[in-house]
Amino acid sequence: MALPLAALIFDVDGTLAETEEAHRLAFNQAFQRHGVPWEWDLPLYKSLLAISGGKERMRAYGAATDPTRLADDRFVALASALHQTKTELYTQMVAQGGVPLRPGVLDLVEQARGAGLRLAIATTTTRANVNALLDGATHGAGHAWFEVVACSDDAPVKKPDPQVYRLVLERLTLAAQACLAIEDSLNGVMAAQRAGIPVVVTKSPFTESPAYPGALRVFSDLTETSLSHLDSLR
Ligand code: XBP
Ligand code: MG
């Protein structure tokens, strides 16, 4: 049974902004800098996005294509160094405003804040990446919008596990049915659902799926809805 809507919980990558091309470029530059002969082109990266988490994505790719490198006991340190470099490169790309908010995001945020709703973030990416995106895409204003920002630093078990969404509920001290999650991917929909949170989808070309079982509604982007419309779907 839905309670009065008290909070919107936004995913980041693919939802707040189309960030995955910047992530992909940063991964490839990090591979080059560390002398790892991997190159993720767009079709391959889209398939790899079925795996949440950059570190998990690299490990899965290595296991499938470069088992000798993965078996090397230095790989754990290499993966950590690769991801640190990638995060540095990505944050440089987005902190300068290279990746804007997706259409409709700002309007919905303003409607929600005007209605006194609380806002939160539940993401698989790192806090550094979230901060850089909010700096670049909102000129820093976005830091004041989100009362709770839960990311991979706080919730290391990645979507579709519900850990990050459960952490947001705990920090908001709200029941799942008083919230609405906004996601772009199947992993994200499943994570929100497993936390008991009603969820809608704003499709992204990077994570598009033929269906999003359990989502209340699937939008092309948030210009297709409004706060009152979202509330009516619950
Ligand atoms: C999307 C992800 C992340 C990014 C890469 O996160 O799965 O892994 O692709 O960022 P979400 P990292 O949609 O939950 O915001 O390399 O920092 O993982
Ligand atoms: Mg996402």
The counted number of beta strands is 6
* CATH fold field value of the largest domain: Rossmann fold
The count of domains is 2
Class per helix and strand makeup: alpha/beta
Q: Beta fraction of the residues?
A: 5-15%
Helix content: 40-55%
Q: Largest beta sheet: what is the strand line-up? A: 3-2-1-4-5-6
Helix count, DSSP H or I runs of 4 or more residues: 10
Give the name of the CATH architecture of the largest domain: 3-Layer(aba) Sandwich
* Corresponding CATH superfamily of the largest domain: HAD superfamily/HAD-like
The end-to-end distance, rounded to whole angstroms, is 9 Å
Rounded to the nearest angstrom, the radius of gyration is: 18 Å
Ligands? xylulose-1,5-bisphosphate, magnesium ion
Give the overall pLDDT as a whole number. 97
Low-pLDDT runs: none
Question: What would CATH call the class of the largest domain?
Answer: Alpha Beta
Shape assignment: globular
Order of helices and strands: EHHHHHHEHEHEHEEH
Biggest sheet statistics: 6 strands, parallel
Question: What features would you describe in this structure?
Answer:
By secondary structure, the protein is an alpha/beta fold. It folds into two domains: 7-18 and 100-233, HAD superfamily/HAD-like (Rossmann fold, 3-Layer(aba) Sandwich); 20-95, Putative phosphatase, domain 2 (DNA polymerase, domain 1, Orthogonal Bundle). Helix content is 46%, strand content 10%. The chain has ten helices and six strands; from the N terminus they run βααααααβαβαβαββα. The protein has helices at 20-33, 42-48, 54-65, 67-71, 75-95, 105-114, 127-138, 163-172, 186-194, 227-233, and strands spanning 7-10, 118-122, 148-150, 179-183, 199-202, 218-219. A six-stranded parallel beta sheet has the order 3-2-1-4-5-6. β4, α9 and β5 form a beta-alpha-beta unit. α5 (75-95) runs parallel beside α7. The longest helix is centred in the middle third of the chain and has 21 residues, at 75-95. The radius of gyration is 18 Å and the shape is globular. The mean pLDDT is 97. Bound molecules: xylulose-1,5-bisphosphate and magnesium ion.
